[in-house]
Amino acid sequence: xxxxxAILQFFLVLCTASLxxxxxxxFKLPRELREASGLVILNDGSFVWHNDSxxxxxxxxxxxxxxxxxxxxxxxxxxxxxxITKSPSDDLFIGNFGxxxxxxxxxxxxxxxxxxxxxxxxxxxxxxxxxxxxxxEKWRNFDMEAMFWFQDSLHLFSKNNAKKGNSYAKHxxxxxxxxxxxxxxxxxxxxxxxFVSGAAISPGEDKVALLSLRFQRILGFIPxxxxxxxxxxxxxxxxxxxxxxxxxxIRPYLYALQYEAIDFxxxxxxxxxxxxxxxxxxxxxxxxxxxxxxx
Length: 295
Known about the structure:
- The chain is mainly β and 295 residues long.
- The chain has one domain (2-294): Tachylectin-2, Chain A, CATH 2.115.10.
- It has one helix spanning 6-16; strands at 2-3, 26-28, 36-41, 47-51, 58-62, 68-73, 81-86, 92-96, 108-112, 119-126, 143-150, 153-159, 168-175, 179-182, 184-190, 195-201, 207-218, 222-233, 244-253, 259-266, 269-274, 283-288.
- The strands form 5 sheets. Strands 1, 7, 8, 9, 10 and 14 form a 6-stranded mixed β-sheet that branches. A 4-stranded antiparallel β-sheet has the order 2-22-21-20, with no helix packed on it.
- β9 and β10 (119-126) form a beta hairpin.
- The longest helix is centred in the first third of the chain and has 11 residues, at 6-16.
């Protein structure tokens, strides 16, 4: 357990800031968020972001227009922070579980508890079906970039190897409590030539969104990205992947954009965030789900 009084400061800022719930259709992210990998929207309307590997272990708080309100640095390793989620009481969970090499055996999720406890705890885990570090290329779908909280558990979704993988994303479950665990492999879904880079569950807990990417090159050298959000509904319990699946696309770009952050603003609205490229700044976009998602 690592204790730090900055956590209390962090939550006090969130509670006293006048943020509102207004979200612009699209907005640039602060320059500090050049590799935005995770997003969670708190109950007061504040946006909490983080970068992934090779960046500071920090959370960045913005409003719904991209204005940076606060930055909190934590004494934690950022081996590869890939997603963040919250419980209904606004406990935060940071997933330090990115695993591009498929060789990590130190997967962890950091729990930032209620400010009255003033503590950071760790959830350490392993994936029960991974036997080789790394496995052969076809079976490299143990990288993790997506997570959300649901009914006292954390639900994680693996990232398939985009080039030579088998196109399956796996659904794992962990207790949302500090400790050492073997994750439960719950299910998988086939997403042809796509990999999952983020996940979110709606405020009413009746829709799950998986953010996915597909990269390719036009004429063999022009990078091109296609982003698809798979939205699952009408599921039973936590069998999300057995629900009704619909797609929500994002307009493709001739220059590859890497969207990795996603969360629900409300039942009908998502926000997604992309990393900075050499010519395009990191930015976020608000997306409305159409009527067909509510039939």
